[in-house]
Specification:
- Two copies of one chain form a homodimer.
- With 240 residues, chain A is an alpha/beta fold.
- Chain A folds into two domains: 5-165, 3-Layer(aba) Sandwich (Molybdenum Cofactor Biosythetic Enzyme, Chain A); 173-237, Alpha-Beta Plaits (2-Layer Sandwich), CATH 3.30.70.2860.
- Chain A is built from nine helices and eleven strands.
- Chain A has helices spanning 13-16, 24-35, 49-62, 80-88, 96-109, 115-118, 152-162, 183-196, 224-237; strands spanning 5-11, 38-45, 65-69, 92-94, 122-124, 128-130, 139-142, 145-148, 173-179, 201-209, 212-221.
- In chain A, helix 2 (24-35) packs parallel to helix 7 (152-162).
- Chain A is elongated.
- The first copy, chain A, starts with a strand and ends with a helix.
- The interface between A and B is large, with 66 and 66 residues.
- Strand 2 (38-45) of chain A pairs antiparallel with strand 2 (38-45) of chain B.
């Protein structure tokens, strides 16, 4: 496939400690798939400056777009913006347009615009803001790195603001076929089919639910007609 | 904290494409937390040989234990065992004890021990098997890398077989305190508290559910008395 490639970097102790279950990766994976951008890697790191800098620099050199989630709030463990500035070697400070957005938001909801909240207006030099219609505090894009909030409702709103800006490829289409046989029995014909349709990605995923064993075969590709053709072949090989 | 460090590497296209939501990372994060092993990074890569080799070699050099999930079944997209052998520069082939386990399992359930199923007995030279009480096909440990299945029921059974073998540290204890104020209002006293209790990890996680806004503050550490003390301080700062 020739679509643009992407990675997501999820920043925060709460997921690695097992306390919280991530949902942003799954949301972004689905949104990118529809936009024709291929998610090739996901990483989760703790709130540690050096770990964030190293992961951002590694990923931004290897994929076309990097999306981050988490660590841009007002508290002491929100260190993402500084780490991004360090990764790019640029300065960071309060930016007037971001500060104005936040000031207006807190005035509207009648809550104090504290010094800690003002920290959320600290944006690395040269970045472009990403709109946050939920809680005002903006994300930002610097080069090919797009920095967004960790709270799922805010993350999802930022993804919706950002994605139309990025150049996607053709949406990746996917169809699946459910086979009530174990992977070991479908493996040989499937390998043959994968060889014939090497422009597609054909994956097999075993399942067992309530004593029923089987294999879901998923065919993915950019050409709808080719995907449909491969699934027709599957249906003939393994009738329902 | 001085506990042993760990990383998890999740291998497979199905999660990056957004089709499936991972649950193994969350399961392992909780199990490691109880065992006193600190999960410092998680990565997800697609079923691509070079990507798996690169990720395994990067992670095993940086943390004490690496756990992998996925890609050890019988089909053409199951390439993890070969990638691990390549990462360590060792040979791989059918191993007699693994083959015997599988042969006995398929005889017992009355299903054919096909050539594809025999692939699951291919184990890198020098590895130790990890028991699979669910579907027999074993995982394996090679050096500090522990290779397990992607199907959640099997992954979880393998983690249960494996963890008692590894040397853990002290379990990491965690308590949380719910504050009905935004992060911006709790940030300053929280930063002060985090400075005083620098042997603990104090994280703050904003939430909004059904129009209620607030912040969950989570205190984690190895010393139960210290964690309790910090939470008592929190309760005094932000009464319920």
């Amino acid at each position: 496939m020739t679509n643009p490639t992407a990675a997501i970097l999820i920043i925060g102790d709460e997921i690695l400690s097992g306390r919280t279950r991530d949902s942003n990766m799954h949301h972004l994976a689905r949104a990118l798939s529809r936009a024709g951008i291929e998610l090739v890697e996901a990483r989760l790191v703790a709130d540690r400056h050096e770990d964030i800098v190293a992961a951002v620099n590694d990923l931004r050199a290897r994929v076309e777009q990097v999306f981050t989630s988490g660590g841009i709030g007002p508290t002491h463990d929100d260190i993402t913006a500084d780490a991004i500035a360090a990764a790019f070697g640029v300065s960071i400070g309060i930016r007037e347009d971001a500060r104005a957005l936040l000031a207006a938001h807190y005035a509207r909801i009648g809550s104090g615009f504290t010094a800690e909240r003002q920290r959320m207006a600290r944006i690395p030099e040269g970045a472009e803001l990403i709109e946050n219609p939920v809680t005002a505090a903006p994300g930002f894009s610097l080069g090919n790195v797009h920095v967004m909030a960790g709270v799922p409702a805010v993350f999802e709103a930022m993804v919706a603001s950002l994605l139309p800006r990025l150049t996607g490829g053709r949406p990746i289409l996917s169809q699946s076929w459910r086979v009530l046989r174990g992977e070991g029995e479908v493996a040989a014909p499937l390998a043959q089919l994968a060889k014939e349709y090497d422009d597609l990605s054909i994956g097999s995923y075993p399942f067992q639910h309530d004593g029923v064993f089987g294999t879901n075969v998923v065919v993915r590709g950019e050409e709808g007609a080719r995907v449909a053709e491969a699934v027709t072949r599957l249906a003939a090989l393994f009738p329902a």
